[in-house]
């Protein structure tokens, strides 16, 4: 049990929220417009006779070549052995300039030898961050460098992959896992399908940040539920942006 909590201190739970690169399709550079139209032809919809470019606002944000990272939520546990209590410290990074946001996140990743954990992180969060960093001219920090590494050298955890137990057939939503484990939902005021509207039209980044932080907390609680160690562990949530606490190596 001691080993589990020692290792838990090194896990950085994270979640990213993304939006389309521009509010309107017509604002994209012409070459990128052409590439989106090619991709759009491969997107299956109920109504396939859509106008060219009409799927951009709703679909572009999930593709790193046509989207952007608008905020990154992170959190980590600190185990207080004497009190048998866990502190979960979380923070959300957001910046009007995506490159500056990614540089701030990179600086955090370089503070220690983190193990990264996200829900569907291996299919979405981790590659999306890598692609957007390179597009913005940001060198990849060590935890995101996987080229040439052996599988056991890549320090990435994925709660969706952990839940599969070798089953490759199904995608499992974080909300479903939260439901079966009795963990409060993160979807009360916002869900992923509404982020683009909230970012571009409502200009409400604070709402997105709160949603992102809740997803990080849910991911961390799901991970704990999948690794039961002892009953009645008290978890205290500390939002670092609302306090003077800082992570110390």
TrEMBL record:
Any one GO MF annotation of this record: nucleic acid binding
Boundaries of every Predicted 3'-5' exonuclease PolB-like domain copy: 68-229
Keywords, comma-separated and alphabetical: Exonuclease, Hydrolase, Nuclease
InterPro entries per record: 3'-5'_exonuclease_PolB-like (IPR019288), RNaseH-like_sf (IPR012337), RNaseH_sf (IPR036397)
Keyword Lyase (UniProt): no
Coiled coil: none
CDD domains xref list: DNA_polB_like1_exo
The protein, known as: 3'-5' exonuclease
Organism: Algoriphagus ratkowskyi
């Amino acid at each position: 049990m001691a080993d589990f909590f020692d290792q838990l201190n090194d896990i950085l739970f994270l979640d990213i929220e993304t939006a389309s690169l521009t509010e309107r399709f017509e604002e994209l550079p012409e070459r990128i417009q052409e590439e989106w139209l090619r991709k759009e032809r491969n997107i299956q919809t109920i109504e396939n006779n859509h106008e060219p470019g009409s799927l951009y606002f709703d679909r572009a944000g999930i593709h790193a070549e046509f989207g952007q990272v608008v905020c990154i939520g992170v959190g980590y546990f600190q185990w207080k052995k004497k009190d048998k209590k866990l502190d979960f410290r979380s923070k959300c990074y957001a910046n009007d300039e995506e490159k500056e946001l990614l540089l701030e996140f990179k600086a955090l990743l370089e503070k220690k030898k983190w193990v990264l954990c996200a829900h569907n992180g291996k299919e979405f969060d981790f590659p999306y961050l890598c692609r957007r960093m390179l597009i913005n001219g940001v060198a990849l920090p060590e935890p995101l460098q996987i080229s040439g590494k052996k599988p056991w050298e890549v320090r990435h955890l994925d709660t969706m992959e952990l839940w599969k137990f070798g089953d490759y057939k199904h995608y499992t939503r974080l909300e479903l896992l939260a439901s079966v484990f009795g963990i409060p939902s993160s979807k009360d005021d916002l869900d992923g399908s509404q982020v683009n509207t909230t970012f571009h039209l409502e200009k409400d980044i604070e709402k997105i940040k709160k949603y992102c932080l809740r997803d990080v907390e849910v991911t961390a609680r799901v991970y704990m539920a999948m690794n039961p160690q002892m009953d009645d562990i008290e978890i205290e949530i500390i939002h670092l942006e609302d306090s003077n606490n800082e992570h110390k190596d």
